[in-house]
């Protein structure tokens, strides 16, 4: 079982638009390729070859091309913020050749919002077939050989869904876009082999985890391998890598971690 970090950046990506030459790198070294970050998403793969995508970010097309991904078995969404869902139309070519739409899942409020915003994806339109389905997570326990657990996490005034996927005797958990650690999160992620975790910056933030909070969650759930993601332009790859313990990985686009 493995996870590929398709995108590791915050909502504006790194570099951010702006700056003297149209690219604002902040404290990130522009000569380090691992500092060039697209918006966050991950791909999970089982030993049997099942593939699950989490989130459809704005940069999804480029991510799928870069990682040579031409087939998906299911899609999960964490929430409906633009950087996590506005690449949803890039699922359309992956629908070609399938007998039916790509199965999709999310928490009930996210289901409602995505159906409202992207009705053509889930219901077809003007002769075009349905690209994906979207169902509530509450009744889901297994998906394509993965056991799925989930938890709602505070994301400032909103919520984001954290996921734990167990398969082949291993587990990978994904906790992005949270601003507080809850007991439910600790219970869901406890003992996971790999935790991919929100880590926007070093200083506290009202809607995201900072470095201290990310490491606090990892310590609470006794995780073996930690991957810091959703990084902004203050988080230089080399500098942050020197700062964290050996079992903590700084995410970059294309990073592959095996559980």
UniProtKB/TrEMBL annotation:
Gene3D superfamilies named in the record: Ribonuclease Z/Hydroxyacylglutathione hydrolase-like
Domain Metallo-beta-lactamase positions: 38-230
Region (Disordered): 1-30
Biased composition (Basic and acidic residues): 18-30
Top-level taxon of the source organism: Bacteria
Name this protein carries in UniProt: MBL fold metallo-hydrolase
Residues that span the membrane, as ranges: none
């Amino acid at each position: 079982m493995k996870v590929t970090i398709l995108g590791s950046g915050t909502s504006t990506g790194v570099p951010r638009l702006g700056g003297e030459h149209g690219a604002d790198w902040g404290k990130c070294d522009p000569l380090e390729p691992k500092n060039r970050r697209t918006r966050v998403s991950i791909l999970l793969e089982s030993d049997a070859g099942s593939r699950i995508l989490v989130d459809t970010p704005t940069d999804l097309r480029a991510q799928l091309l870069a990682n040579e991904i031409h087939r998906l078995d299911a899609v999960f969404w964490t929430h409906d913020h633009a950087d996590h869902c506005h690449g949803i139309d890039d699922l359309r070519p992956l629908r070609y050749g399938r007998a039916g739409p790509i199965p999709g899942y999310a928490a009930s409020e996210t289901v409602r919002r995505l159906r409202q915003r992207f009705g053509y994806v889930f219901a077809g339109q003007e002769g075009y077939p349905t690209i994906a389905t979207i169902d509530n997570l509450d009744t889901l326990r297994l998906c394509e050989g993965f056991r799925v657990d989930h938890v709602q996490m505070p994301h400032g005034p909103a919520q984001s869904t954290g996921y734990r996927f167990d398969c082949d005797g291993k587990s990978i958990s994904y906790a992005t876009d949270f601003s507080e650690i809850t007991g439910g999160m600790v219970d869901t992620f406890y003992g996971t082999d790999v935790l991919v975790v929100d880590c926007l910056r070093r200083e506290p933030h009202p809607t995201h985890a900072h470095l201290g909070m990310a490491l606090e969650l990892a310590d609470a759930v006794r995780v073996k391998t930690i991957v810091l993601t959703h990084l902004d332009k203050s988080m230089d790859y080399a500098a942050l890598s020197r700062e964290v313990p050996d079992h903590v990985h700084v995410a970059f686009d294309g990073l592959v971690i095996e559980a």
